Amino acid sequence: MKINTSYVIVGLIIAFTLIFELVAHADPWDQSSTVTFSDPVQIPGQVLPAGTYLFKLANGDSDRNIVQIFDADRTVLYATLQTIATERQEPTEDTAVTFAEQGAGKPEVLLKWFYPGRETGNEFLYSKEKEKELAQDRQQTIVANQHTVPDSDTTGAGN
Prior knowledge:
This protein is an alpha+beta fold. Helices cover 21% and strands 39% of the residues. It contains three helices and eleven strands. Strand 5 (66-71) and strand 6 form a beta hairpin. It starts with a helix and ends in a 9-residue tail after the last strand.
């Protein structure tokens, strides 16, 4: 049986294209985003020092509400956090995060994380007591590589 070389070459090109397409779409699936904080930031259960972090959805097809926070090179896992879906009016081209400002001497609290181009993001869960405190704090959304977008002064963490 003689195999035509052109069929083999075409088959390899198709296989390579399919593999390349899968790899090219890997980041949007887990929504990996690099975020740099110039000051310490509070997340549920701990305070992250100023630095660069990688935020991504945990691997899992059934539950897309678990966010992992790593150091920039993915060697240290700082937290695996349960979140709930949250909406925004307009997506941005860059990663956006929403903070609650606690006042002088206290780190800002990370409330929400939005992957670029998505209207639905992840809202971090805090204790009921902490949520009541945060509801009184001024909130602001910061878009990577852009200016601050102020939210209302009394927006609750659940909004």
